[in-house]
Amino acid sequence: MSAVDLTTRYLGLDLTSPLIAAASPLSRSLDNARQLEDAGAGALVMYSLFEEELTHQENATARFMIDQGIGFGEADSFLPFHDSAFQHGLEQYLDQVRTLKQALTIPVIASLNGVSLDGWIEHGRLLCEAGADALELNVYHLASDLDESGEAVERRYLELLTALKAEVTVPVAMKLSPYFSSPGHFIRRLAEAKADGVVLFNRFYQPDIDLDHQQVVSQLSRSRPDEIRLALRWLALLYRKTPLTLAGVGGVHSGADALKLLLAGADAVQLCSALLVQGPEYLATVKQQLVEQLALFDSDCLADVIGRFSQRQCHSPEVFERANYIHLIDSYNPAAGVHL
Amino acid sequence: MSERITLDGNEAVARVAYALNEVIAIYPITPASSMGEWSDQWAAQGRPNLFGAVPSVVEMQSEAGAAGALHGALQNGALATTFTASQGLLLMIPNMYKIAGELTPLVIHVSARTIATHALSIFGDHSDVMAVRATGFAMLAANSVQEVHDFALISQAVSLTSRVPFVHFFDGFRTSHEIATLDTLSPETLSALIDLDAIHAHRRRALTPENPVLRGSAQNPDVFFQAQEAVNPYYQALPGLVQQAFDRFAELTGRHYHLFDYIGSEQARRVLVLMGSGAETGEETVREWVEDGEPVGLIKVRLYRPFSAQDLIAALPETTEAIAVLDRCKEPGADGEPLYKDVLTALAQHQAGTAPKFSQMPKVIGGRYGLSSKEFTPAMVKAVFDELNAEQPKNGFTIGIADDVSGSSLNFDASYRSRAALSAFNALFYGLGSDGTVSANKNAIKIIGNLTDKYAQGYFVYDSKKSGAMTVSHLRFGDAPIRSSYLIGEGDAQFIACHQPSFLERHALLDKAAPGAVFLLNSQEPEGEVWHSLPRATQQAIIDKNIRLYVLDAYAIAQRLGLGRLINTVMQAGFFALSDVLPKEQALTAIKQAVQKSYAKAGQRIVEANIAAIDAAVAALKEIPVPDKADNDFDLTPPVPDSAPEFIRNITGEIMAGRGDTLPVSAFAADGTFPTGTAQWDKRNLALDIPVWETDLCTQCGKCVFVCPHSVIRSKLFKPEAMADAPPTFKHTPVKSKAFTGLEISYQVAPEDCTGCTLCVDVCPIRDRENPERKALNMRPQAPLREQERANWDFFLKLPEPDRHLLHANKIPEAMHFQPLFEFPSACVGCGETPYIRLASQLFGERMVVANATGCSSIYGGNLPTTPWSKNAEGRGPAWSNSLFEDNAEFGLGFRVAINQQRLFAEHLLEQLQDDIGRETVAAIIDAPQTDEAEIFEQRQRVAALKQRLEGRNDAVSRQLLEVIDTLIKRSVWIIGGDGWGYDIGFGGLDHVLASGLDVNILLLDTEVYSNTGGQTSKATPRGAIAKFSAAGKATPKKDLARLAMDYEQVYVAQVAFGAKDAHTLRAFLEAESYPGVSLIIAYSPCIAHGVDLSRNLKQQNLAVRSGHWPLLRFDPRRVSQGHNPMQLDSAKPSIPFRDFALTEARFNMLARTHPQASEKFMQQCQQEVEARYRHYHLLAEDLKERES
Description:
The structure holds 2 protein chains of 2 kinds.
Chain A: E1 8-10, E2 13-15, E3 19-21, H1 30-39, E4 43-50, H2 51-66, H3 89-103, E5 108-113, H4 117-129, E6 134-138, H5 150-167, E7 172-176, H6 183-192, E8 197-200, E9 206-210, E10 215-219, H7 228-238, E11 245-249, H8 255-264, E12 268-271, H9 273-278, H10 282-296, H11 302-305, H12 324-330
Parallel strand pairs in A: 3-4, 3-12, 4-5, 5-6, 6-7, 7-8, 8-11, 11-12
Antiparallel strand pairs in A: 1-2, 9-10
Chain B: E1 4-8, H1 9-20, E2 23-26, H2 33-44, E3 56-59, H3 63-75, E4 80-84, H4 86-101, E5 107-112, H5 127-130, E6 138-141, H6 145-162, E7 166-171, E8 179-183, H7 187-193, H8 196-204, H9 224-229, H10 232-253, E9 260-264, E10 270-274, H11 278-291, E11 296-301, E12 303-305, H12 309-315, E13 322-327, H13 338-351, E14 363-369, H14 378-388, E15 397-399, E16 409-410, H15 419-423, E17 425-432, H16 437-451, E18 455-462, E19 470-478, E20 493-498, H17 503-506, E21 513-522, H18 536-544, E22 548-552, H19 554-560, H20 568-578, H21 584-599, H22 604-620, E23 622-624, H23 646-656, E24 689-693, H24 703-707, E25 713-718, E26 733-734, E27 744-749, H25 759-763, E28 777-781, H26 786-798, H27 812-815, H28 834-844, E29 848-852, H29 856-862, E30 879-881, H30 888-912, H31 914-917, H32 919-926, H33 933-950, H34 956-964, E31 972-978, H35 979-985, H36 987-996, E32 1001-1006, E33 1009-1010, E34 1016-1017, H37 1041-1046, E35 1052-1056, H38 1062-1074, E36 1079-1084, H39 1097-1106, E37 1113-1115, H40 1118-1121, E38 1127-1129, H41 1138-1142, H42 1146-1149, ...
Parallel strand pairs in B: 2-3, 2-4, 4-5, 5-7, 6-7, 10-11, 10-13, 13-14, 14-15, 15-16, 17-20, 20-21, 21-22, 29-30, 29-31, 31-32, 32-36, 35-36
Antiparallel strand pairs in B: 1-8, 6-12, 8-18, 9-11, 17-19, 18-19, 22-23, 24-28, 25-27, 26-27, 33-34, 35-37, 37-38
Helix pairs in contact in B: 1-2, 1-6, 3-4, 6-10, 12-13, 16-20, 16-21, 20-21, 20-22, 21-22, 28-38, 30-34, 30-36
């Protein structure tokens, strides 16, 4: 296993392995983080710091912890409030960055989600100061406002990236949703705005209708292996067409899944659901599977196979651009060079 | 190093007790709870005690349990303590005898509180401590916040050296909750006074197998007596040891104490004797009189047990001619209260001795004062001294009340003031419970106490309501120590602030204003309209007293800065800007620093908003010119309308108006009985918005009525002709249900009783398709609707109630037409408990008797002035009583046994009369099935007819039968209480009742904490939640009470959550009540202690059920005989992660802020537990099904 070279370069960082622990609650625990490193993670993306959540926490802290009184003689408060032990969510996150940085040798990538531009910038700066090796911007935005154009959405992201890059020195990755009219074009613009990489793709809470309770519910379900195909297509399409380093995420449950994304063109892959279900040590299994799968390609160096099945390098580049029924029609076309 | 700080009495005690102990056994009880809470908090923070160890703080299931744990800890060599009061202390009595009998060093710190007699009271007097004076504990009385701090040390020091355990007591609320400036005891002082050798000796007496002994033997008549007398030398030595400790303490701190401290003239002829905070008022008054040359004096009793008669005599001046001894307790039937009798005995024995000190035996009279924190003022001190001038002064007097029944009371001149009271700067603040007024004032006291040399005092008066409560903050600042242990009186306040403009309507806020006072009003009126918004009497008071009127629109500022309705910072800035207690700039800087400190943990954004609020407040302050004449034609609204019944006008209304102190003894029934149906008279107008019904959209599902926590939205069916006199805006529409074709229906809101909680709108399932914002119920501003809807409500009430037996109780729309006989409780806005109680009252109210455990439900259910328990048009309704916290299941079982017994007796008597009234009639009555509304109705008719026949008959059988005849109508016994009762303190009794098989219905309102006392952990608290006493998150899972109850196999058990499945709740209530054995309904009740706004009450219930935290189930033993599985799991497999429920509540999510790793671990454990519990329940149900097949 050690003979195989799994090193890769992502966001300008040299990783010992392309397997990155994606943003998840696992990074809240130092023990879990250490296990991930021991299992062979190339880097660790921390759980996301949500500005919206911080704001909510601040309001809840003021309302439920500091201003508890209801003017009742028997009870001037209800929840114990430990002033000295209590940490603001931001402070806690920064502490965790420092703790992880101190304990781990692999890069620690902080994940960030903001609401206001000021929030993004301020938090990004603090995360860098705390020692984060890179920032992953968890830029989810559901364009539910019918007055907002796609151009406006993209502009907002670009403004954010530009402003943040002016403030921080560490590499910045954009974790994108798949909902762009022209993802490739947008990613090119991100590159122009000095992004260092993109992570494809973010997954979201999806609403559902609970018929038993007759209500709309929303929750994040864990990924399934077949979900890698979405990222696979776009990694393959983007490989070598953008200067950005690429990470695939969503549905990686085995070494085979990981390898597919790497073959499509990812510089690294991120795992989340599999680790949440199987535990952090499962990453070692995935790594072992990856090595075994690499052997099928007669390769002991990961760099050799990255992008081997990208659109640029594969034998059927058109397959990445086709939808189903076109595929059927297309099969009637004669081979190039055949004169009808 | 000692430092001067401001603290309340309980924290002042807890700091010392925590520092000097290793094991702290606690249980919540007002007003002692916060001492345990501080201890738990410090332990969770890892704060070491004086000896460098972090004490173990253990919460027990009751005070009896705490005492047992203490006893065990002490026997095993630990330094241990506890904090308690009132009934809690009573529960410790058996162990106290043991602990004292074994000469065990211990201090129990008691914030002395009234013992419940004719009524419960959370307030202060000495009835509890006087009840333990025979236990063998020494008793040391502290009178002020400084003294409780000092005596916590002294009692512990002497207990160790003397081996005699101590009760260290001080007045509940007046001292325990007073915030005052004090000099702290340094660790060096603590160390200097605590004798390490005594600690070592205590440890050497511990039980150990290395040196085994036996303690706690059983003894026979031959030796018990002598063996008990063996302790005498220890008690004889004790007064000397206490004085030695006092003297050593004085060397260390400069504060001098004596067993009996005498204050006053060396030539005093009249002397008062008392202990507790009243002695401070006494001292304040006596010192001034002595300055004025009056020969009077005062004895402050410090060490009450052992009572050192010789030290008392030594403390009294030789010139003493008359002594009044004041007891803060009542011993009915005794010829005097305890302290009086001790003093009298001491004097009599002394004078009968060989060298009497006094030329003749002084006159000694005793009297009662200050029961349940009744005010004790310099005017009352004067009245007692004046009485001592009488030739035959009244003995057994009362002071502070008007006793027009027994004539015991002394008159007093309420206008009398001490100079000290007037020399301080007195400020009064009227606030709304949740607007932050009290916390702002606590801050203000700390700012002034900490930044200046001034002495500060703060005391806070609350009404007993949990929603819309009025708080009155009494703040004093002075250059000398403040001994005024009484409220700011009429005409004494130089500053008055009204933080809630609606108080102006009903309260004479300026009665307490001094001439030239400043009145700061939070008002949303435009500047030019403020004067005209004041009732005429208020205007007149401003003119007469030359009051300067200032106004601030605090709500607008708070709203603008994102602070919601929290106006604490704004109004505090107003106070400092207008009062001269501190230079304005210094004051504003200080509040900003305080805000920075208070809100730092909430983040810079919120700090900045509060700081901006300070500047905005100062900028917005406006002085309103005061005209020469009062010109308004409206005046203060009377508390109740003239149309109210006499009792309501004369008694209830007076209490509501804050004039309860003036009611004489004759106003009250001697046995504590009150009429029900009185909450309807307390129109509190709390809601800013109220629901408005849209007849066109409504499907008449009744869900809004079902969820209403305050019974303010009602439905009724009636004939169209009833609308002839309807007010023009009264809404009604034809009923949709085919069963009632031809009738009209109305959903009507009580506009002045609604609290604006929005749950009815939240539950309303119907939206306008054209305008989805519009539901069949929508919140609209109350003010413009108030008059119109008041008329509509009155009209609605007059409509006849529908025939109960025509309605199907198992259908929500129809069941909701039943009249609630529990209405307008003063529970929290959006309370999770009250809908269950209301539902029971609707279904069974007219034949319901309720045993109610002490807790939230007994407070919103039974705290004066009014009660939500009410009656129907026939005068029938729930009869309600509260016994104790710990005995409620047994209390309710007693109800059932008594009813059954009387029913049997009635049947026996009936049978004796059968030749007379007819065999068939008797059989019809005795055999009446009474299984549904119709059958109960028929039985009621039969009994009524029989009563009519028996009226006027003089034979013994008929007369006896008439007294018990009503028990022939089925009675529904309800045992209601919270989880603190059912899971913890009352669990033994509950368990016994579960096993009894008797026909009682237990409604356990599970808020998963002790809600009433402020959110302490119970065994119902879930793992991973923070609660008081579980500051680091509860590490153990919630007790599964349903499972325990089901194990009896003969108990009907239901676990319900109306916000998740209302029809299930309804069905469970009907099944439970109809089950002819014990029924237990465990009802999920969201509470403000969960750290979530109760407008989310229903959503939280839903999340609790869907996450598997609260499975819905019913276990009906009747089903077995029908060939069915008794167990029915009524909720689906958990469909959302536990985390998605838990993290919506601060009780869970705040743990991640303090203990992130533990929080994460708990979340994972909880997830496993909900899944395992679901599997278990599912298997239980499935297994039995298989067994059937």
